[in-house]
Write a structure and sequence with these properties.
Blueprint (H helix, E strand, L loop, with lengths): L11 H16 L5 H11 L7 H56 L3 H26 L4 H4 L5
Helix pairs in contact: 1-3, 2-3, 3-4
Length: 148
C-alpha cells in the first residue's frame, strides 16, 4: 500500500494496520461491518485514543468496509470476465485462422493452406510458451489475486 498525501512514507505499523483492515474486510461476512467493528474494538482502544476517537474510527472503518467489500468483489468478477473474454477471443481467432486454411485447402491452394495452418499452430505454441514463462510457478489464481 502506498501512502496518500504530501509524499510522506507510511510508517510500518500504519501499513500493517491498513493491510489487516483489508484482510478483515476481504474475509468478513455479508456486509463486513460487524467483523470490522469487532476487530477494531479489539485492536484500536489504545492509551493514545479517547473513547470517542475509537468509536469514530470504528464507525469510519465500518463505512469503508461496506463499500470496499463490494468493490473488491466486483474487481474479482471483472478479472474473471476479462480472462474469459480474452480466452474466447483468442480461440475464435484461432478457429478463424484454421477455417481460412481449410478454405485454401478446399480450393486446392495447398501451399497457402499449409502455411496458414502452420502459422496458426506457431502462434498457439508461442502463446503457450510465453504463458508458461509468465506464470512460472504461480497458479493463474495467484497471478490474478483470486485466492479462494
Amino acid at each position: 500500500m502506498k501512502a496518500v498525501g504530501f509524499g510522506n512514507a507510511m510508517k510500518e505499523h500504519e501499513r500493517e494496520a491498513a493491510e489487516q483492515v483489508l484482510v478483515v474486510i476481504k474475509n468478513s461476512s455479508a456486509d463486513g461491518a460487524g467483523d470490522v467493528s469487532a476487530w477494531a474494538e479489539k485492536v484500536y482502544p489504545t492509551d493514545n485514543m479517547t473513547k470517542e476517537e475509537t468509536e469514530n474510527l470504528t464507525e469510519f472503518l465500518c463505512t469503508i468496509a461496506v463499500r470496499t467489500r463490494v468493490t473488491m468483489r466486483m474487481s474479482r468478477i471483472g478479472v474473471v470476465l476479462k480472462l474469459l473474454m480474452t480466452l474466447s477471443m483468442g480461440y475464435m481467432d484461432a478457429l478463424t485462422d484454421f477455417l481460412v486454411a481449410k478454405s485454401y485447402y478446399d480450393t486446392k491452394i495447398f501451399n497457402t493452406a499449409y502455411a496458414t495452418a502452420g502459422f496458426a499452430v506457431l502462434a498457439i505454441v508461442i502463446q503457450a510458451v510465453i504463458t508458461l514463462i509468465q506464470y512460472g510457478k504461480k497458479s493463474w489464481r495467484e497471478h490474478y489475486g483470486l485466492h479462494s
